[in-house]
Automatic annotation (TrEMBL), chain B:
GO terms for molecular function: carbohydrate binding. Belongs to the bacterial solute-binding protein 2 family. One of its GO terms (cellular component) is cell envelope. This is Periplasmic binding protein/LacI transcriptional regulator. Residues 1-22 form the signal peptide. Keywords: Signal.
Length: 343, 334
């Protein structure tokens, strides 16, 4: 059986490097080719005048559409690598979106010089609420040694309740144009702002996860918490910060979704945690912890986005869409060569 | 003299006591079972329910219960209402079939039960106070098709598949489409966005990407989804006013969009449904002496007969909201 650490490193080392690293990219390209071919078939048959799937506009659209799930999935990647799970991100998204919206509407005389708060206020409110919710989950997990599944299940319910308590269940609309820019604006008239945010989040998170001590510790805690602790890592603090990151990013996603739809709704983000987990898992992370990379998550989110977009364009009914999505998640994990073997 | 004073005092005390008793005359307790409470429409129903004149006058006491979007939870809540001997039940059911027990059990217990807003597939209830979804679907599609002059391409954004809302509003959509000359209007796409604005936004973006410049009209089976379509059109840098768009319900955001000339909304009268239900329930509790107290009967007297509260079904009329009447309706919100 050997040294316990060998179990973590060995199976991954056995897999062929190129396939392990780029399998997900091939899967993504394959899916694009498949959808595009099906569209092309319709064009050849004369049913459609042109293939609208493989256009710059449509690809930009897909990036726009995955922005919310992509941001959530980045946070989920941290959590999953630390061998945890965060079921609360959809609810926390709704709560922070509602808090932001409550400060982004016109209310007379909030400051001497304006009828609305400067846009930085609702943003800070959303990110702060998100980070606080995440921090609370993390603290409960670390301090009381409660399973992440249970602690964040509690947060899932509580945050939804808080969301409803802000306005007694009513939606908030009439958001200021400054705030809506974060969902509907375009940089240089081309790149949607949510796509820019998504890119920034991925970039920053990549640096944190791969180039900082904190990032190394997240992998260590997820790989084997006991040995991480014996080697002097404050595992409790690492866990708390992991959930702060997830909550903070749920706040970012809350800002994007609220600004995009122009309204904060109490039902917003319901079951978004499942799409985020799906992206992370398709991207090759292991729910057992210690394994996972952000590039994988990015392509995982892209695959889900291409599938939703492609199936809409192909006119596939929504029930088949769910079946296909479900199948894809399971198949992706079965085929993933970097998968950590059970046992 | 002293005796007289004493009697007077006693009489006065008695009078005030009986007056107090009259005011305390047991309030009719009505349990209102809502399918959930995360939608603006449900919030409006709760608000208007509490504003019913009988509630304000202390004749009735209404308590709202949140069914948490679960038919089984609603069935349990109904059992609780029966066990605690509420005088009447008003139910806005989650499910057409799964909530039938509420009507059956209440009837067995001798408690009047009024079904409001959605339908139940039974006739055991005291009465239904609803709006005809087939008609609503017809009115919205008709509005879109009239604007298009029965020419062009439309998309239909549907409610959750298999729900009574999607089925009946869909039937109404079809009816209006059938009134256009055959082949004049093409339904390019139809798919569900589950009543959700965020889902409809993504769906409409994908359709706009698939059919650039081809979509002329959007039939959203509720307002939220029509609003999502409007956001998608704006995100694609197209002009919303080049599209004929309609939704159903009359939520506040939709009224604002109507005012901006972006869509038409078919108002489902939350006040009519809940206050009408409370009046019908009170009539069943208090007997033939009870006269309806809500102003809605006066408002709709041309289309809606009180019929001494004895009808099996009350159809609360829809209002087509356009720029002409939207200001009046917006005044009522907030």
């Amino acid at each position: 059986m050997g040294h316990p650490l060998m179990h973590i490193t060995q199976p991954a080392a056995k897999a062929p490097i190129s396939l392990r690293k780029y399998g997900i990219v091939f899967a993504f390209l394959g899916l694009c080719v498949l959808v595009s071919a099906l569209c092309q078939l319709k064009v050849v048959q004369g049913a459609w005048p042109e293939n609208t799937f493989l256009t710059v506009n449509n690809l930009m659209l897909i990036l726009h559409q995955i922005s919310v799930n992509g941001v959530l999935a980045v946070g989920m990647t941290f959590v999953v690598i630390s061998a945890g799970i965060d079921l609360s991100v959809g609810s926390v998204l709704a709560f922070s979106g509602m808090m932001a919206a409550s400060m982004a509407t016109r209310s007379v005389g909030v400051t001497p010089w304006s009828d609305t708060y400067p846009v930085i206020f609702p943003i800070i409110a959303a990110l702060g609420v998100g980070a606080l919710c995440g921090g609370l989950s993390g603290w409960i997990i670390a301090r009381f040694r409660i399973q992440a599944f249970i602690a964040t299940l509690g947060m899932l319910l509580a945050a939804r309740g808080f969301t409803m308590s802000v306005t007694g269940g009513n939606p908030i609309s009439g958001l200021s144009p400054d705030f809506r820019w974060f969902g509907t604006g375009k940089l240089f008239e081309v790149i949607p702002v949510p796509v820019v945010i998504l890119a920034l989040v991925f970039l920053l998170a990549w640096v944190i996860l791969n180039k900082t001590v904190f990032g190394r510790y997240v992998y260590a805690v997820g790989g084997n918490e006991k040995s991480a602790r014996t080697s002097g890592i404050n595992t409790g603090a690492i866990l708390i910060w992991v959930y702060v990151v997830a909550g903070f990013l749920a706040g970012v996603a809350g800002v994007i979704l609220t600004a995009k739809t122009g309204s904060a709704q109490t039902s917003a983000g319901s079951s978004y945690e499942l799409d985020a987990i799906a992206a992370v898992v398709i991207g090759g992370a292991s729910l057992a912890g210690g394994v996972g990379r952000l590039t994988g998550t990015f392509f995982g989110a892209l695959i889900i986005g291409v599938m939703n977009n492609g199936l809409d364009i192909l006119g596939v009914q929504s029930f088949y869409q769910l079946i296909i999505k479900g199948g894809l998640i399971v198949v992706a994990v079965i085929l993933d060569p970097s998968r950590k073997q059970a046992g | 003299m002293k005796k007289l004073l004493l009697t007077a005092c006693a009489a006065a005390a008695l009078l005030s006591a009986s007056a107090a008793m009259a005011a305390d005359a047991p309030k009719a307790r009505i349990a209102v079972l809502m399918y959930g409470n995360k939608a603006e429409f449900v919030q409006l129903m709760e608000r208007y329910g509490k504003e019913h004149p009988a509630v304000k006058a202390g004749i009735a006491e209404v308590t709202f219960y949140d069914g948490r979007y679960d038919a089984a939870v609603q069935n349990d809540q109904a059992q609780m209402a029966i066990n605690t001997k509420q005088d009447a039940i008003v139910v806005n059911p989650m499910d057409y079939e799964a909530n039938i027990d509420i009507a059956t059990n209440a009837k067995m217990a001798g408690i009047p039960v009024v079904v409001t807003n959605a339908r139940l597939n039974t006739d055991e209830m005291t009465a239904e106070v609803v709006s005809d979804d087939v008609l609503g679907g017809y009115l919205e599609a008709k509005d879109v098709l009239t604007k298009l002059g029965c020419k062009g391409n439309v998309v239909i954004i549907e409610g959750p598949k298999g729900g009574s809302g999607e089925i009946q509003r869909g039937q109404g959509n079809e009816k209006a489409l059938a009134e256009c000359p055959a082949g004049a209007v093409k339904v390019l796409e139809r798919k569900t966005a589950n009543w959700s604005r965020a889902e409809a936004l993504d769906l409409m973006q994908n359709w706009l990407s698939k059919h650039p410049g081809k979509i002329n009209g959007v039939i959203g089976q509720n307002d939220e989804m029509a609003l999502g379509a409007i956001e998608a059109i704006k995100a694609a840098d197209l002009n919303v006013k080049d599209f004929a768009i309609a939704g159903i319900d009359g939520v506040t955001d939709a009224l604002h969009a109507v005012k901006a000339g972006e869509m038409t909304s078919i108002l489902q009268d939350a006040r009519g449904q809940i206050q009408g239900s409370i009046d019908v329930a009170l009539r069943a509790v208090k007997g033939p002496d009870y006269k309806p107290m809500s102003p809605i009967w006066e408002q709709y007297k041309a289309d809606l007969a009180w019929a001494d509260g004895q009808s099996k079904r009350y159809d609360i009329p829809w209002t087509v909201v356009t720029t002409a009447n939207v200001d009046e309706l917006l005044k009522d919100r907030n």
